[in-house]
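Subject: Re: docking follow-up (flavin-adenine dinucleotide)

Dear J.,

Thanks for your patience while I sorted out the input files. As discussed at Tuesday's group meeting, I've set up the holo structure prediction with flavin-adenine dinucleotide included as the bound ligand rather than trying to dock it afterwards. The sequence and the ligand SMILES I used are pasted below, so you can double-check that they match what you have on your end before we go further.
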Amino acid sequence: MASLHVAVIGGGFAGAATALHLVRRGARVTLLERDPIAGAHASSQNAGMLRTAIADPALARVAVAGARGLEQAQTWADAPLVRPSGSLLLASGAELDALRAVVPALKELRRNAEWIEPAAATARVPALAGTSFDAALWTPEDGVADTAAYLAALLRGARQDGATLRLGTEVTSGDPGDESRPARLATEKGVIEADAVVIAAGAWSDVVAGRLGLPLRGLVPYRRHLHATGPFPSVDPGWPFVWALGDEVYFRPESGGLLLSPCDEEPFEPGEPPADPENRALLARKVAATFPALVDLPVMRSWAGLRTFAPDRRFVLGRDPTAPRVFWAAGLAGHGMTCAWEIGRIVADSALGLAPAPAEFDPARRR
Ligand SMILES: Cc1cc2nc3c(=O)[nH]c(=O)nc-3n(C[C@H](O)[C@H](O)[C@H](O)COP(=O)(O)OP(=O)(O)OC[C@H]3O[C@@H](n4cnc5c(N)ncnc54)[C@H](O)[C@@H]3O)c2cc1C
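The structure tokens for the complex came back this morning:
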């Protein structure tokens, strides 16, 4: 097993974490990234929130293990990777019911979480004055990650243990191989032969599968916007991130001001999505309706990125049902940064034949 050569396609969180776990298990790894730098897409465009309080217990398990992974990745980082701010999920009615099971699920995973009254939540974040909700889920070990530093740490760890990172190397076509012959990936810089291939190409994962002649997994990228305000004095940088469920709008402190999203979801072609100027108006409407203490925020910068979903919104991890040498690390939705470490572990174990990926993430499942 130690001599297995694995080609990982994509240099975002999914590919970097998988490469790291593969080399630590003795595999030879070539990480292929199309761009001249790694992580230029979703992995650098996200909100950096380490959120483990997720209603789907399958995702929550991966998120808790993923969040713990950042402590291990600290080994390869020069600065702290996490600001442990905690998180507040505001809920009422159906959203509250949907989250009921989260507290026992997190407790089972030895993660603290508790429901608190609106007054207690507002005491933590005075900007919630005037916000209407029944209860808030307080998860104190959640926090905000330095996403650039985290990705750099994963890549550094992978390279230290021998992974080769080939930037500016796009997989343009290929043959997935079979039991008797290796996979072959064509790039403009030559052909790469590998015992196993990992598709970790984010929004392009189904595009890559198509280039290898494999059936697509139904992955759809959705555009989402983020907006950063300029600094303003009433923001305490120690606030937790605050997510109003149901209304679907969130904010967290950033550089003396706030980073916010109106949680928009719009199907989008794989690519570099432009920010729609109209989205600021959507944000303003949602903030006015949900966080009246935050109206008229001075938005300074807006951008958009792609979150990629399988039809059932669960990750797509592990062996391809049609090609025994091909493995998936895709469909990471809005949780790919939080979950990266654990996703890398699951996919590395699957690619090296050590353990299959959990059935709920099986690329072959009915969705
Ligand atoms: C607005 C927004 C907010 C988010 N907020 C959070 C958050 O707060 N917390 C959280 O945990 N997650 C968050 N996410 C989700 C998280 O960012 C993603 O799940 C994660 O970054 C996906 O990583 P990835 O490696 O799968 O994809 P990507 O980062 O897109 O990486 C895929 C890579 O594959 C490369 N590639 C594509 N095709 C090829 C090819 N043919 N050959 C070689 N390379 C190729 C691409 O160039 C790219 O670099 C957010 C996402 C967005 C967009």
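A couple of observations from a first look. The chain has two domains: 5-43+148-219+312-361, 87-140+224-304. Residues 9-15, 32-35, 39-43, 45-49, 170-171, 200-204, 208, 224, 226, 305-307, 332, 334-338 surround flavin-adenine dinucleotide (CB under 6 Å).

Let me know if you'd like me to rerun anything.

Best regards,
T.
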